[in-house]
Amino acid sequence: MGCREKSAQIVLRVDYPCCNLFLVTQRNPTTPKLAIKATLVGAPVSPSHTEFSWDLPTQNADGSWTPGAWASVKGLVRYRKNGLHICSSKQFAYWNTHFRSKAMIAWVCEYDGHTNDVYEGRKSRNGFAARRVRLLRPWDGAEVIPGLGTDD
User: Fold this and answer.
1) How far is CA 106 from the centre of its chain?
2) Tens of pLDDT along 85-108?
3) Which of 36, 41, 37 is nearest to 101 (CA)?
4) More reliable by pLDDT, 89 or 21
C-alpha cells in the first residue's frame, strides 16, 4: 500500500494479488484562520509594540486587496511574551478602549502555526499570540472574526 499527494488530491494505492486499486480523494481545502490586528494610522506598527513594522496590504484597482507578507517569530509562542499578538472581533473592543488616545486601523489578518492564549497561568480574555500572521484587508467593524473562537 502506498500514498502520494497531488496538489488538490490524495492518491492511495492498494496492492492486491489480482490487481492494483487506486483510490483518489479530494483534499479538503483549509479554511484560513482569521483574527484582528491593529496598526497606528500613518505607521505600519502596533499601538503598543512600535519596534516591528508590518507589511500592509495594498488595494487593487478593482477594489480587492493583496495581502501583506507573512510575519513570523521564532521560539516558544507565549501570549504577552513572544508571538504576534492578535484578537477576535469581540476582543477588539477591549483594545480599542485601551488605546483610545491612539488613532488605529484594524485589519483582518490570517494566522498560522502555534498559538497561545495563556498568561500567568490564566486564559487571556483579550487576545492571543500566533507564530505567523499576515494582514489581509481593513476590518469593516461589522464582520465577525472568530480569532481562536474561544472568547464567547
Assistant:
1) 14
2) 999 999 988 888 878 878 889 999
3) 41
4) 89
Tens-digit pLDDT profile for residues 35-77: 999 999 988 988 887 788 999 999 999 999 999 999 999 999 9
For residue 15, how many other CB atoms are within 10 A of its CB?
9
Residues 119 and 68 sit within 8 Å (Cβ to Cβ): no
Closest CA to 21 of 33, 10, 32, 12: 12
Beta-bridge partner residues of 26? 9
CB 133 within 8 A of CB 44: no
**118-119 and 122-123 strand pairing:** antiparallel
Domain ranges of the chain: 1-30, 33-138
